[in-house]
């Protein structure tokens, strides 16, 4: 996608301050710059450091993109927390700096993450056209909406009795144990977010039409949402440097990682990652380690820094949670690579040796798995990940479930462990070369091709991005709404 000639529309992007929300919004800003918009990313000074190199590279390619670092009030604590911000992280310290910036700068629109809960009121008050970004795909948005509307989970007798989500294009079964607490009981937060979405000019969705056509239509026509579906936005990362540094600098040198993968056969390696937030307890990691070893398939396993409670109740880094002799055996057999910290996920997933992705079904990871043509082992933990699991396994049929049954907040130790046998069975089922797995791989590859076509000139996502730019050009800023 090359830059286009003027006139340019001016788009501001105000990402949330961490991982799974920040990363795709930066990519989205970069994507719109390749469509000829003038993109400005509003960030805290420390957050800006995490993606400034990729923006610099885009500028060198001639794209009109820049970062505006908000000046925090003296003594204020910046809300960004090294990719570990959670939905409840309070960012309101950014309110006044943003207001001052917007008083001086009137863009054609501002794309804002719904987790900045205070921002909609401010932006609407200043009469700037506001576009919402929630980080989710259409399928999970439709499931969320219909559960809220019909409350089917109230009609079952136990947390583990399945219910069907009414009204959807497919028969989607869930259990109450898989729902986030705010979906089980009425809570004010989703209401506030959805009301502010209703008043917005529309929603930007990181997905592509061909992935979930029935749900894109349902979202637009049945739920009545104005949506531009412009992804997968991760595909704007086209060179090794962008992929290696995405999110933050990887904890492993990318060449070491790629050399290790080069030494493996095609489609032989399972990549295991649970996103930017999920941290398992040492007992769960032990089960994973045993299961992987028993499966006897090569793997790359990303574990964050593991903490456990010390006697005094303090969180302490836990060093010694692997089974006895595990790492020595791995070194000898060269069967596995453990990454402690941040992995260059896009580079790994796109490598020809990677044939399976054990994932927590975060939406970005799901899309990245799809875009790389890699079938998945689904291990949802929190947020809307159980809904994404249904899309992967039941609708798209490109994944097998490990058997995670209970929603838990990402930072609370799981009550129900997934045992080593389940890990072993799931890995063998996906990586063992059986007909079922080969069929999943074929379907995953087909979707990857469709994903690439969607973002190329003339593709569905490309056209949606252009359509938004055209609407921005046609409608004067003063109207406030499209
Ligand atoms: N990610 C990464 N390296 C890691 C962990 C995560 O690059 O070690 C990226 C991943 O590629 C994805 C994002 O972080 O783009 C995680 O988003 P997702 O929606 O999958 O999960 P979340 O972190 O929001 O739970």
UniProtKB/TrEMBL annotation:
Top-level EC class: transferase
A single MF term (Gene Ontology): UDP-glucosyltransferase activity
Keyword Chloroplast: no
Gene3D superfamilies: Glycogen Phosphorylase B (3.40.50.2000)
Entry's EC annotation: 2.4.1.-
Keyword Glycosyltransferase: yes
Keywords attached to this entry: Glycosyltransferase, Transferase
Protein name, UniProt field: Glycosyltransferase
Organism of this sequence: Morella rubra
């Amino acid at each position: 996608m090359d830059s286009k000639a003027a006139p340019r529309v001016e788009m501001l992007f105000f990402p949330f301050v961490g991982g799974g929300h920040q990363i795709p919004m930066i990519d989205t800003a970069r994507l719109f710059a390749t469509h000829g918009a003038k993109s400005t990313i509003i960030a805290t000074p420390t957050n800006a450091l995490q993606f400034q190199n990729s923006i610099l590279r885009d500028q060198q390619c001639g794209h009109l993109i820049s970062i505006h670092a908000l000046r925090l009030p003296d003594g204020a604590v910046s809300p960004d927390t090294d990719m570990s911000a959670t939905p409840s992280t309070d960012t309101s310290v950014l309110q006044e700096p943003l207001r001052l910036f917007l008083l001086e700068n009137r863009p054609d629109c501002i794309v804002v993450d719904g987790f900045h809960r205070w921002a909609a009121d401010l932006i609407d008050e200043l009469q700037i056209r506001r576009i919402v970004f929630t980080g989710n795909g259409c399928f999970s948005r439709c499931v969320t909406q219909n559960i809220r509307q019909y409350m089917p989970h109230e009609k079952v007798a136990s947390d583990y009795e399945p219910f069907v989500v009414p009204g959807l294009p497919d028969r989607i079964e869930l259990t109450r144990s898989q729902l986030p607490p705010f979906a089980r009981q009425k809570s004010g937060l989703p209401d506030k977010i959805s009301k502010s979405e209703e008043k917005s000019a529309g929603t930007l969705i990181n997905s592509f039409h061909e992935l979930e056509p029935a749900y894109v239509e349902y979202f637009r026509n049945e739920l009545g949402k104005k949506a531009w579906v412009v992804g997968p936005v991760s595909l704007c990362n086209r060179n090794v440097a962008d992929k290696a540094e995405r999110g933050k600098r990887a904890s492993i040198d990318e060449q070491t990682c790629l050399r290790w993968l080069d030494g493996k056969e095609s489609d032989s390696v399972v990549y295991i990652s649970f996103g930017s937030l999920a941290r398992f307890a040492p007992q769960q990691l032990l089960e994973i380690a045993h299961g992987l070893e028993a499966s006897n398939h090569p793997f790359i396993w990303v574990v964050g820094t593991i903490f456990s409670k010390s006697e005094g109740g303090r969180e302490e880094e836990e060093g010694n949670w692997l089974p006895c002799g595990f790492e020595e055996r791995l070194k000898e057999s060269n069967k596995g690579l453990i990454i402690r910290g941040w992995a260059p996920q896009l580079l790994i997933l796109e490598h020809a040796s990677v044939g399976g992705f054990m994932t927590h079904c975060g939406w970005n990871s799901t899309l990245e798995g799809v875009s790389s043509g890699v079938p998945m082992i689904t291990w949802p933990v929190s947020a809307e990940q159980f809904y994404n699991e249904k899309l992967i396994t039941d609708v798209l049929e490109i994944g097998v479930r490990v058997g995670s049954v209970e929603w838990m907040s990402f930072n609370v130790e799981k009550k129900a462990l997934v045992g080593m046998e389940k890990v072993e069975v799931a890995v063998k089922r996906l990586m063992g070369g059986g007909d079922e797995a080969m069929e999943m791989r074929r379907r995953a590859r087909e979707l990857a091709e469709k994903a690439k076509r969607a973002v190329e000139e003339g593709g569905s996502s490309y056209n949606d991005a252009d359509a938004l730019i055209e609407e921005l050009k046609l409608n004067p800023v003063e109207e406030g709404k499209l």
